[in-house]
Amino acid sequence: MLQGTSQKFRGGCLMLVRDTEGAVGFLGTAFLVHGSGYLLTAAHLVSKPEGLLVVATASGDEYQPMTFDRVSAIPVSVVQQDIAHDVALLKMEQDISIGVPDDFLGSGANVRSGASLMSLGYSFGHEQLHTALSVSSFASAKIRSPNDTQLILFDTMVQDGDTGGPLIHVTDGHIVGIVSGRFEPAEVVRGSADWERRPARDTNISYAVDIDYGVALMRAEGLFENA
Amino acid sequence: MHDTETDTAEEGQTGLFKLDVHPWVFFSSAAIIVLFVGLTIFFESTVDNLFNVVQGAVSTYAGWFFVGTMNLILIYVISLLFGRFGDIRLGGEGAKPEFSTLGWFAMLFSAGMGIGLLFYGVAEPMFHYVASPLAEPGTPAAARVAMDFTFLHWGLHPWSIYALVGLALGFFAFNKGLPLSIRSVFYPLLGERIYGPIGNVIDIMATVATMFGVATSLGLGVQQVNAGLSHLLDFIPQNASVQLALIAGITMIATWSVVRGLDSGIKFLSQLNVVVAAALMLFVLLLGPTLFILNAFIENLGVYVQNFPSLSTWNETYNDTDWQNGWTVFYWGWWIAWSPFVGMFIARVSYGRTIREFIKGVLLVPTLVTFLWVTVFGDTALHIEMFGDGGLAKAVQENIPVSLFVMLESLPLSEISSVVAIIVIITFFVTSSDSGSLVIDIITAGGNTEPPVIQRVFWALLEGAVAAALLLGGGLVALQTAAISTGLPFAIILIGMCWSLHLGLVHYKTGQGFELGVQGYEGPEFKTHATRKMPTFGRRQFWLTESLQRRTGAAMRPRPTPSPAFQIEGASIRSESSKSTEPPTGGKT
């Protein structure tokens, strides 16, 4: 089951990088959502929209080189973004033939606590590991943040490079969220004498925003109009 | 996501008079229905002959095909029950069933079998008992074979057809977000072409077959109710005006029920219907030959299981008879012709069930209930015929609907049970009629599961009108024959449906991947280098309220006297870096 899920989605994951004068700096992960070259990722990765590129890596079952000195990249631009909910829709600027499965977009509504999940991302992209990793977890909770964003907490410690990758519901086989970061409980008590702000703890709980926000961007872009 | 999609579709199509129709399907179906009814009424005998010839040819030359198809579909449905797709939930992993399990069963059962069971529960075993193809008529062996054939015709095979169509429709509509319409089932095979002419033809065929199936059985059914009523009550004549009044009454209740919608109208009537029917069955079970029935139920099940492979593939190849054309093949054609209607209705009420639950609920439970029903009524009749006063076989051959009342008369308290039987018959009619119109409404509204009220009224009334016109003008039997003949093209469609559903299920969770054609891509090449992680990892905006975010300085100030451990972990550096993070915009200006 996990193997099938990984095989289905790995090919859709790409490295998100930025062109910095001939070299590329790693930003995070983006994943394909549409046959015309659209990808979703986390908005905070693309807060500066210049020089964005995506890099496809081999997704087969062979042993892959762990790192590449040179990569061939495809330019992308930000076509829609929702900063409040931390999702952005990118589009490839080149015309590339892309096949996507018949259906793979689920909804955070389908996640119940305890559900098996899988996240995919270039976990150690910052450290030059150019391979997407499949990581399993289960759903810890579904919460609404103070700015009313629907978040899925899951019990794995995502790495910095996982941000922007897909969170997949394993038994449903559909993407239910966009990995946003590690959960960081802010210990802030206001209006009390002993208020304090402790630095962030590295928890082993991560969070993803509901894919519905991404689907909303796709709808705003008119990607569902002929359906 | 799927809900909002239908919403937008609805808004797009809502225009004048709050109609929501698929123009091609709606108007073509209505025109074809009116045309056919007109032709049938004006050229009754010619049309009747033509349809009979067609139906005869279909039975003779395609009987083997029906038998094979039914078994193929049953095997496929059972493989789904045990297979790896069993835990896919209709509507997605988080979907919750719309109806309670009992309410669901009640609706399945009322739409699926309905009225036929009431009449044929008594009549069919009697027919097979006196004219058995596989045993000496009138012997205990004939009785056993008679019950076996009745189980075959009303058992797993018809329900597997309904389960297939219902499952395919529910899966493609609720999980893939396609319109709830027969055409959607072929998405894996036809792709976007389902929205074109091929899809329209499929939907028009389903609409017309459903209308003729439901309307003709309404027309024929009221004749039977009328026969029963005048048998019971001498002052009621057996004529067209009584039957028209019955059609009008049934259509009125059905319209009310369709307008009230699935949740109140149809569900309420189905549950009422099942409760009253259960009461009638219990009545016969307790006041009839109880021990004989209970013995028979177990034995019939055993005989059914024992003979299942041979009987369900039996083609009378080595007997030079055509008994099967009139019975088994007729039934198979009938169930297949009804499958778009019943399947669609089953799909509509099964949102939120897993595939395994669905098949248990649609294949196994109704089959067992049907077997119990057939045993109670059929074996009571057989008991009367074999060990009692007899005379039932004769009554059955004279008039099928009356045979039910003849049987009830041989039991105590027949005045009460006959009235209950009439109530059951009428409620079964209403539930078939209202679910039939609802299905036609949904298809002709392009898959909108909550079509506008004016369209619901239109189709419910048209159904009554077609039944009445055929009743007065003649041609009920002719058109029913025509409806059953559509079983042949539908059987081919059903096989395609198995394949299409299989592809859809395989592609649902895994099986298909993303493909990126970068082999030929000559893009710019870049050097890579190690990078610093994003400073905004673990976005504060989600954890701090907006008021706190604005006062970042104050809220983020580290504790004046940090503990030593705090320092060692290098935490203050981290908190410095988070301080330098630009304040989250929150997207709200």
If you had to describe this structure to a student in words, what would you say it looks like?
The complex is a heterodimer of chains A (227) and B (589). Chain A is 8% helix and 40% strand. Chain A has two helices and 14 strands. Chain A has a six-stranded antiparallel β-barrel with strand order 1-2-3-7-6-4. In chain A, strands 9-10-11-14-13-12 form a six-stranded antiparallel beta barrel. Chain B has a single domain, classed as Amino acid/polyamine transporter I. Chain B starts with a helix and ends in a 9-residue tail after the last helix. Residues 1-16 and 552-589 of chain B have low confidence and may be disordered. Strand 8 (98-99) of chain A pairs antiparallel with strand 1 of chain B. Chain B: It holds the Pfam family BCCT. Chain B: Keywords: Cell membrane, Membrane, Transmembrane, Transmembrane helix, Transport. Chain B: Residues 574-583 have a biased composition (Polar residues).
Task: Describe the secondary structure blueprint for this structure.
The complex is a heterodimer of chains A (227) and B (589).
Chain A: H1 2-10, E1 13-20, E2 23-34, E3 38-41, E4 52-56, E5 70-72, E6 74-82, E7 87-92, E8 98-99, E9 116-121, E10 133-144, E11 150-154, E12 166-169, E13 174-182, E14 206-210, H2 211-220
Antiparallel strand pairs in A: 1-2, 1-4, 2-3, 3-7, 4-6, 6-7, 9-10, 9-12, 10-11, 11-14, 12-13, 13-14
Chain B: H1 2-13, H2 23-42, H3 44-82, H4 101-112, H5 115-130, H6 140-154, H7 156-175, H8 187-190, H9 197-232, H10 240-260, H11 262-287, H12 290-312, H13 323-326, H14 328-349, H15 355-387, H16 392-398, H17 400-409, H18 414-444, H19 453-473, H20 476-485, H21 487-509, E1 515-516, E2 525-529, H22 546-550, H23 552-556, H24 564-568, H25 571-580
Helix pairs in contact in B: 2-3, 2-9, 2-19, 3-7, 3-14, 3-15, 3-20, 3-21, 4-11, 4-14, 4-18, 5-6, 5-15, 5-16, 5-17, 6-7, 6-12, 6-15, 7-14, 7-15, 7-21, 9-10, 9-14, 9-17, 9-18, 9-19, 9-20, 10-11, 10-18, 10-19, 11-18, 12-15, 14-18, 14-21, 16-17, 18-19
